[in-house]
Amino acid sequence: MSNHDNDNNFNDYLSGNSDLSKVYRDADNSKTNAELPASDLDNSILAAAKREVNSKPKKNSSPFTNNYFIPLSTAASILIVFTMVSFFPDEQVIEFEPAIIMGELDSQQDSTPDNQKLEDKRSQKAKADNKTKQNATLAKRSKVKKEQSNKTFRKKINSKPTDIKTGKVILNESKKPLPQFDYPGGIIKPRISPLEKKAIATENITEDVVEDEDITVEMSLDSLSSSSRMADAPTQPLSTELMNDPVTTSSSIHKSKVAQSPVEELLRKDQSEPAISPLIDSDLIYDEFNWKYLPAEEWIRRIKAIYYKRGEKDVHDIITIFNDKFPKLKITIQDIIDNDN
Amino acid sequence: MHNSVAAVNLGSSMNDDLKDQTDESLMLRYSTGDAAAFEVLYSRHKGPLFRYFRRQCSEAAIAEELFQDSWMSIIKARKKYISSAKFTTYMYTVAHNKLIDYYRRNKIRFSDSVSNDDCETEDIIEALPASKQQQPEHILAAEQKRTRLLSAIELLPEKQREVFLLREESGLSLDEIARITNVNAETAKSRLRYAVNSLTKTIQAGDS
Questions:
Q1: Mind telling me how many Å the CA of A176 is from chain B's nearest CA?
Q2: How many CB atoms lie within 10 A of CB A121?
Q3: Which of A18, A165, A304, B178 could pair covalently with A12 via S-S, beta carbons 3.0-4.6 A apart?
Q4: Touching check for B2 and chain A: CB below 8 Å?
């Protein structure tokens, strides 16, 4: 067969007029049953096709979950975060640093007299020896800087708002501390003694109960001291004494009891409890700058020590200053002597 | 017998509307969940596709396995089907890939040499048992032709056979055949030419 014949055969085949296609189709038609897939195969394929279609609603049976899973989980996460933030604000974690600074300030204040002495000695030596005039000037400058830094820090602390009832300095006004947590680092106690706190609390109570505002703590203290002196009896709690007095009304008992208890407790506490730190000679010299920040109980402790060491004359002026500083807690020398006895 | 009954039952259950629709629209309907559309589609193409496999595989079981695998692939990939091409092109591409995988698994050489294919065909034709001289004259009829042709097709090189079957069974154009077999149109045409010439020789040899 030549190439020409082959091309003709192929062209006839492509046009659909060749014997080859006819014979092939006849072969297909004659063997129809044999050339078809088995019925089992048909059924299995059609069943698979139906199963695939029927499984569609199962796959898409949870379109809500499929479509809203990410948005819902995101919203839930945000809700949890907001809940956590609202219930646990972070202010308490932040406030540790001022407490530490405050402690440092205390140590600086406590050591200030010593530093001053050292500086004085150094400067004296320097002047006496005439060796290092520059060192002396530097020491003076450093001293001034320290004092300035202390003053500025005290101003900062004093400028902070203070809760009068609790006696706590609120370091962060915008965020209120939680009531169920007591954070020592978060809230710094100002220089308000327990005695002052009680006095403030007493003032609040007596305002509610006492109608006559002229009755003051001072009067109660005077009555206590005078009554105890007149009876020549050992010091008793004022409350007991007033309770035995038939003239005293119940309201006056309440007033006096509440009004006298802070000082009484302070004096008793001073007797019963040992001093936190032993007093040294420098503590027994009145220094307006250093004593300015002392609590009332420390004042009384030092006044007592001065009284027993140097006598009544030196104490008199200090008691006057104390009474000016703590007008609600006015005391006399006799109060100190009586409580000591 | 079973096959004919199944075909009748299948045909009776088909919707007339579906019968008028094209392959592509039927496949799209099936992709949206219409199982009846798939039944129509299957009934249209099950014979040609099965013969495509049956005449390229030595064993019927293998042909059935490949046939089933091809339809399962079409079923599973129904959502990915895009009607940009003819469904037959898509279906025979799947079938071609299944066949290639089968050849690779069984390490069957898939010859690509046209000249070798031609030589092999010549040898096969020489080896064919039926010839006019060897058969009684009254038996030489159409059945002998058919038998020879099918035997000759079975002995064609794989690539030529595939191209011929794609042409005969599905009526695909050369471009579509080239796309399915992943060759250019000229190569597909050349393969088809060699196949047609070989098979024509076989038929003519029987007649003479």
A1: 60
A2: 10
A3: A18
A4: yes
Backbone angles phi, psi at A317, to 5 degrees: -65, -40
Q: What residues contact residue B62 under an 8 Å CB cut-off, 6+ apart?
A: B53, B102
Residues 10-39 of A with CB under 8 A from B: 10, 13, 18-21, 23-28, 30, 32-33, 35-39
Q: How far is A16 from chain B (nearest CA, A)?
A: 10
Q: What is the pLDDT of residue A200?
A: 61
Counting residues of chain A whose pLDDT is more than 70, the rounded percentage is 41
Quick one: which of B123, B124, B148 has its CA closest to B135? B148
In the predicted model, what is the mean pLDDT of residues B23-46?
88
Phi, psi of A28 (to 5 degrees): -65, -45
| pLDDT at B103 (0 to 100) | 84
Nearest to A260 by CA among A211, A202, A299, A300: A202
Q: What is the spatial distance between Cα A279 and Cα A302, in angstroms, rounded to a whole number?
A: 8
Residues 6+ away with beta carbon under 8 Å from B64: A37, A38, A41, B50, B53
ipTM value: 0.71
Highest mean pLDDT among A74-78, A214-218, B31-35: A74-78
Contact A13 B196 (CB under 8 A): yes
| Spatial separation of the C-alpha atoms in residues A102 and A153, rounded to whole Å | 9
pLDDT band for B71, please (50, 70, 90 cuts): very high
Chain A nearest C-alpha distance from B105 (Å)? 23
Length of chain B: 208
Contact B38 A46 (CB under 8 A): yes
Distance CA B62, CA B58 (A): 8
Residue at token pair 């050292």: A118
A189: confidence class by pLDDT, cuts 50, 70, 90 = very low
**CA nearest neighbour of A109 among A251, A276, A283:** A283
Q: Which of B33, B51, B143 sits opposite A35 (nearest CB)?
A: B51
Give the type of residue at A229: R
Q: Do B50 and A36 touch (CB under 8 A)?
A: yes
Neighbouring CB atoms inside 10 A of A218's CB total 15
Residue pair A187/A92 in contact by the 8 Å Cβ criterion: no
B165 closest CA partner among B141, B181, B185? B181
Rounded distance between C-alpha atoms, residue B208 and residue B199, angstroms: 14
Matching residue, tokens 């309201």: A251
Residue A5 clears pLDDT 60, i.e. is over it: yes
Residue A286's SS3 state is coil
pLDDT band at A77 (very low <50, low <70, confident <90, very high): very high
CA distance A322 to A331: 8
Q: Which residues contact A152 (CB under 8 A, 6 or more apart)?
A: none
